[in-house]
Amino acid sequence: MRVVIIGAGQVGESIAADLEDGHEVVIVERDADRCDELTYSLDVLTINGDGTAVSTLEEAGIGDADMVIASTDDDETNIVACSTAKAVSDAFTIARIKNTEYLRTWERSRSAFGIDFMVCTNLLTAESIVRVIGLPAARDVDLFADGEVQMAEFEVSEGSALVGETVSEADRFDSLTFASILRDDEVVIPRGETRIEVGDRAVVIGSPGSVRGFAADVAPDEHVGTGEEVVIVGGSEIGYHAARLLGERGFSPRLIERDPDRARDIAEELPETFVMESDATDIGFLEREHIGDADVLIAALDSDEKNLLSCLLATRLGVERTVAIVDQTAYVDIFETVGVDVGVSPRAVVAEEISRFTREGSAENVALIEDDRAEVLEVEVTEESLLANRPISESIHDFPDCLVIGAITREGELVTPRGDTVIRPDDHVVVFFEESVVDEVTGKL
């Protein structure tokens, strides 16, 4: 597949790195120095130029392109680039945008702007945050099969009931599968005798109810329900959408916003959210408002430094769990090392959403694990799949050892995979595998 990526920022580079092995990738970037960097670091063709110009797109081979991904940091540039590409080619176009108004317009008419798919950074990030805070100790949560299947990554801390147990002992839920244990830099495919250690990150796949039950085992003292208190720092678009989504789920969040006009607008639009006009780094204010009593604090300010400071202040005041927006994806590990419980990168969230369109076959959804070390993929099984019409115990031998079948849905019903389970055409299968075998796996699914 020939893919033209417009914009070589973190999102564009991440997508290009994911595609370079199995596809012909062309990157269009205005910054000549950035083009030179990527030429040496990735096996891609770089074009220095304006991605909205027909001449530049023709130089990139737009006539032969199967897909165009506009991933610059400017909404209007991405929309115009996709419109231009659609006018001169039959390529499938994907635009990354931040403003939800553009998304609403596109949703009313899927042909609007000449865009086949639109990815809204702010909304996707808010949805990711809300999923994470709904599960105690969860570091990452993704939904598959229209919400019938949930994938979650949990950190096993000291004092957890799972420490010292084997996987077979910890597997107490009928509709749950241990997909992997991430230990240091190793991806461990768990067997029944695999013992769980402090610091492990367990990736499980199953029904939402089973995943919630597993969360209670991982962190028995942590509970997140609609009665719990959530504080959002920052009335940015991400903060606004997080508050809105929480309100729709029965929470009554508190939101701190410094700008009086923005605070007034949010208060009028979100009546279930209690909006406070103040500087979120004012310790006196935080103490007066008993922010330390909150169960979760979400830092959604306009800079990584401010979000880190807000989380560290909140932890010092007694907040049980902190979630920070981290614009620079490379800083997520640093944030979590110095004391932030969960760092969420909007760029990584968008790259993950776009990546499902670049998978071979009938990929329905994709989740990337730990900086692309592993992947969870949902596919619809066809007659040609090596999984079709065979028991799992037989078909699994045709795949790499690092593949785990986590869940199956059939006509909307969850089927827990076992060795004698026969997968049928039209089933939706959720699988886990290491990133190193992505081409081999997707070619067989």
Plain-language structure description:
The protein is α/β, with parallel strands linked by helices. It folds into three domains: 2-115, Rossmann fold (3-Layer(aba) Sandwich); 224-350, Rossmann fold (3-Layer(aba) Sandwich), CATH 3.40.50; 351-444, Regulator of K+ conductance, C-terminal domain (Alpha-Beta Plaits, 2-Layer Sandwich), CATH 3.30.70. It is built from 16 helices and 24 strands. The longest helix has 14 residues, at 75-88. The model has no long low-confidence stretch (mean pLDDT 90).
CATH class of the largest domain: Alpha Beta
Tally of distinct domains: 3
Q: Give unreliable regions as ranges.
A: none
Instruction: Look up the CATH topology of the largest domain.
Output: Rossmann fold
CATH homologous superfamily label of the largest domain: NAD(P)-binding Rossmann-like Domain
What is the total tally of β strands? 24
If classified by CATH, what would the architecture of the largest domain be? 3-Layer(aba) Sandwich
